[in-house]
């Protein structure tokens, strides 16, 4: 007997996530204070610029910078929220509940329920005929696709995971990497505009009264100290914008390099770990037509990147313009049913899915 539960899919999600607005907002179950602090800075700093710098810029320099700044701010705050609240690409659980197992690495095949059972890796062929071993995740009950890793903070396997971002309180993966990158670009441009026109505000105040300003009006002939006393918050916004610009620009440059190499932060960390421990490449002798079989941690300096293209532009397109499903694999909004049938007496596997929720 299959009965309707009336519950939406997000209520049955087993990862360490929180959902709001009937599942529309998805975030990590980690401490939200870093994200809230980032959101406050993201709103407060542009608000100060709009209040204390934008009016002078509009009337004495040009309205265009204010309009451009408003547009970039809207892009930045929207991209930030979409990145933080969208499903990053969580892989469904229990896709492979009964993987083939052996007793140890070289033992005989045994049942999955045996405490000595070691799930065997699966071989997946990717670009250029390269074979990769993918691991079975004992938490999610699923073989991880290539470039997928399990996030210990969110307790999910995430498709094409780049990293877990504390300041956005979510993982950055296949479904939100583009908006994450857009957030970095828009934030950098906003900070640059803020810095430039804070300087111009003080500079115009120090021009002689005979100097005509671009949008009308004249300089006020103040000294630098007098100009600072007239608009002290321009100086404050200037230094705060620099303090925000430096780390974001550093992160942006780091991701530019990763994008050009078609590499993720997780893969880069593996490279650094390999260098630190001076690991040597070990190839499987049972190679297929594509050559050697690389282990799950093969995306390091010991192996060529099987996902990278010869062209840098193709790497950029693959990283930023990759196709994305219309909705996540989780079916957060779909009503679920419960399979109320009793387990078969012949099925003793503890991984049986009878009694588990299934999508409608």
Task: Walk me through this protein's architecture.
The chain is of the alpha+beta class and 360 residues long. It has a domain at 1-23 and 332-360. The chain contains eight helices and 17 strands. The strands form seven sheets. A three-stranded antiparallel beta sheet has the order 1-16-17, with no helix packed on it. A three-stranded antiparallel beta sheet has the order 5-4-6, with no helix packed on it. It has a three-stranded mixed beta sheet with strand order 7-8-15, with no helix packed on it. α3 (64-85) runs antiparallel to α4 (177-205), α4 (177-205) packs antiparallel against α6 (232-261) and α5 crosses α6 (232-261). The longest helix is centred in the last third of the chain and has 30 residues, at 232-261. It is elongated. The relative contact order is 0.17.
Essential attributes:
alpha+beta, 360 residues, 8 helices, 16% strand, three-stranded antiparallel β-sheet
């Amino acid at each position: 007997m299959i009965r309707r539960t009336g519950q939406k899919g997000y209520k049955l999600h087993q990862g360490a996530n929180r959902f709001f607005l009937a599942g529309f907002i998805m975030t990590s179950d980690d401490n939200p204070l870093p994200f809230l602090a980032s959101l406050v800075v993201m709103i407060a700093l542009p608000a100060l610029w709009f209040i204390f710098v934008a009016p002078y810029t509009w009337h004495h320099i040009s309205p265009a910078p204010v309009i451009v700044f408003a547009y970039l701010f809207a892009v930045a705050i929207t991209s930030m929220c979409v990145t933080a609240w969208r499903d990053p690409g969580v892989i469904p659980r229990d896709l492979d509940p009964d993987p083939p197992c052996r007793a140890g690495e070289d033992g005989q095949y045994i049942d999955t329920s045996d405490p000595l059972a070691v799930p065997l890796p699966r071989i997946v062929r990717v670009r250029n005929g390269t074979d990769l071993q993918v691991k079975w995740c004992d938490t999610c009950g699923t073989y991880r696709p290539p470039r997928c890793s399990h996030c210990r903070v969110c307790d999910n396997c995430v498709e094409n995971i780049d990293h877990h971002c504390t300041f956005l309180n979510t993982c950055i993966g296949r479904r939100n990497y583009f908006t994450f990158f857009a957030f970095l670009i828009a934030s950098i441009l906003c900070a640059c505009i803020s810095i430039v026109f804070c300087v111009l505000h003080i500079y115009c105040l120090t021009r002689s009264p005979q100097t005509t300003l671009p949008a009308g009006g004249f300089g006020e002939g103040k000294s630098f100290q007098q100009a600072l006393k007239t608009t002290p918050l321009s100086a404050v916004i200037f230094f705060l914008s620099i303090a925000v610009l430096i780390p974001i620009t550093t992160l942006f440059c780091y991701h530019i390099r990763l994008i050009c190499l078609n590499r993720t932060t997780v893969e880069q960390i593996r490279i650094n770990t390999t260098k630190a421990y001076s690991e040597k490449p070990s190839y499987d002798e049972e190679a297929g037509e594509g050559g050697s079989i690389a282990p799950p941690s093969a995306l390091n300096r010991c192996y060529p990147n099987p996902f990278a293209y010869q062209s840098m532009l193709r790497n950029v397109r693959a990283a930023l313009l990759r196709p994305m499903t219309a909705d996540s694999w989780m079916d957060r909004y779909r009503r679920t049913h419960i399979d109320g049938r009793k387990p078969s007496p012949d099925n003793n596997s503890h991984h049986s899915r009878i009694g588990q929720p299934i999508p409608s």
